[in-house]
Amino acid sequence: MTMPPKHATMVNAFSPDNMASLDPVMQDSVKKRLRLLGPAYRLFYQNPVQVSRGAGVHLYDRDGQEYLDAYNNVVSVGHAHPRVADAICRQAHTLCTHTRYVQDGILRYSDEILSTFGGQLGMSGHMMYTCTGSEANDLALRIAQHHTGRNGIIITSEAYHGNSYLTAGLSPSLGARSPLGTWVRRIPAPDSYRLPSKDMGAWFADCVRAQIHDLERHGNGLAAFIADSIFSSDGIYAFPTDLLAPVAEVVREAGGVFIADEVQSGFGRTGDKLWGYQRHGVDPDIVSMGKPMGNGFPVAAIAVRPEIVAKFGGDMRYFNTFGGNSVAIAAAQATLDVIRDEQLIENAQRVGVFLRKGLRELQTRYPQMGDIRGAGLYIGVEMVKDPVGKQPDAALASAIVNGLRERRVLISATGFYANILKIRPPLVFSEDDASRLIEELERVLSNF
């Protein structure tokens, strides 16, 4: 294989070297952004998108042009959903304070969300609130390390788990120059396109076992294994679904903690169930959640088994000034209510099947679409130079992403080679929206 290209967020990004190609108004905005926000921020697309408002699955720029948003999973129930917006507004007019007072809202939400997990978490788990998924994963790992007295963490090869100091150190998808932690070990992604699915669960568990042995040999041992159940940054691998249960057994045999990172795959994203890990039939020790939890309002959390957090809670206190505040909980409750009342898990399943079927039909005419995979409304399309050799084609993926942007359809790219189209729309995406995406994708593909 050739060396990997720049990370997907760089491939699908605006370069300041192309400033002259922008119209004067956009040039002015981008120059101000660079001056005020600095060099670490990235804009999507070679031709950046300016947005002024959103509604449902659509974004609108200052000129009123409409864009189909087939990428944004944060606003899972749609941009500016009135029930969520109204709940935030009402609560902000009533009270916004922290968790060190007794409040009914956080108790109602915690009771309701815990009931969705089943297993040990559903029977006796605790909720702990943060503002972001990075904070949630950071807290989950701190608890695991304190519980076990060890530091080792095992992740998948191109994982993303956050932006805090600890979680950035176990997020190789941030790029080769973003250092990994000393006690972090990586296992291969479960590449169902190139690896045989038969016995993949046993192979995956063996990979974890080997890294546990390496951690122990270097004098520390395993604190936790953490994975996103749809392997989002690795390339979106939805099947097979017998991967995580064998891993959980190996992790617990070594005295470690199994953490399900549901920040991207949770809240109905994969169809069938509310949580992605439930597709694998595994009962985690800790579940982290964030991104879509408040439909864009910053709220995140972990659910943790009581025996895992007991020592941590006895030895130190946990407090987050804004985590679980009154308005955040109102946003989370309204979002959960909308997912249930509008049957968005069922919608994700139905429209996801429709969309994948349409993509596979398109694949018969465009063999560069080497693999179509995913679950619910989380779909990956792997672009290759040769469907026999399966050589990744990052340049084609980038051209498609930017070609769709010019047709006002927004997606992104992911994976180690940044060659996988990442389709992850709000859960209110309809079959008509899916048809528009497929039609526009064919128009872009016809140019290659």
In short:
38% of the residues lie in helices and 15% in strands. It has 448 residues and is an alpha/beta fold.
Overview of the molecule:
With 448 residues, the protein is of the alpha/beta class. The protein has two domains: 8-77 and 344-445, Alpha-Beta Complex (Aspartate Aminotransferase, domain 1), CATH 3.90.1150.10; 82-341, Type I PLP-dependent aspartate aminotransferase-like (Major domain) (Aspartate Aminotransferase, domain 2, 3-Layer(aba) Sandwich), CATH 3.40.640.10. Helices cover 38% and strands 15% of the residues. The chain has 14 helices and 15 strands. The protein has helices at 8-11, 24-37, 82-94, 104-114, 119-124, 133-148, 165-168, 200-217, 244-253, 306-315, 326-341, 344-363, 394-406, 431-445; strands at residues 53-55, 58-60, 66-69, 126-130, 152-156, 184-187, 222-227, 257-261, 286-289, 300-304, 369-375, 378-383, 409-410, 412-414, 420-423. Strands 4-10-9-8-7-5-6 form a seven-stranded mixed sheet, sandwiched between helices. Strands 1-2-3-13 form a four-stranded mixed sheet. A four-stranded antiparallel sheet has the order 11-12-15-14. Helix 3 (82-94) runs antiparallel to helix 11 (326-341) and helix 12 runs parallel beside helix 14 (431-445). The protein is globular, with a radius of gyration of 22 Å. The protein starts with 7 loop residues before the first helix and ends with a helix. The mean pLDDT is 95.
